[in-house]
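Just scan my protein:

——
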Amino acid sequence: MNLFVTIGKYFSLMGSVFSKPVNRKIFFRRLKAEIEQIGFDSVGIVCIVSVFMGAVLTIQMGINFESPIIPRYIIGLSTRDTMILEFSSTIVCLILSGRVGSNIASEIGTMRITEQIDALEIMGVNSANYLILPKIVAAFFTFPFLALLSIMLGIVGGFFIAFTSPDIVTVADYIYGLHYAFVPFYVTYTVVKIAVFAILITSISAFFGYYTEGGALEVGKSSTKAVVYSIISVLLFNLILTQVMLT
């Protein structure tokens, strides 16, 4: 029963969130700030992780594809498709669940226990729309760019291995593999996935922060719940979207 109550509260909150902003100027001002906090501030961690993962994938593919009957350009192809199909959408979002999700939950949770949200309600402001909608919209537009950046940097990481370790794969074979049998729809699939994940991460994290009760300890618990449930939701919808879009 508690599960259904929680789901009902979540959709009720989302109904308040996705209402028309009362003041568009304030909304766009907050949206600009959230794009910087959620999107731009996440570029560093995405860049570092993507470059190293692209390099590691290339090394692992080279080790596993040592059979003489397997052409070496398959290493570049495998690195490319792994980055596009799974890492730069799902794995990056799991990382962002920890960084962005916990930040949103703790920020809104702190506002709840310090009665700042109550003050907004007393002034007649739709607090859910004012606080949460800019975060969801900011993540919806910035996460796909982070995914595309991750793909490019992962490929660059693999190229670095090809350039420095020709015994694993030569640069020519790696580049040929990047171009071989490319399916443009895979990029569309990745962008759609990460846009859905962006909504899930921000809305679930905001939900747990918004309904925080108690003191500072409960803010920490809400932040933890936000990360855990965001990760579970990302994995579940990853399965659903893959089943729907690729089969």
Observations:
- The longest helix spans residues 73-113.
- The chain has one domain: 22-246.
- The radius of gyration is 21 Å.
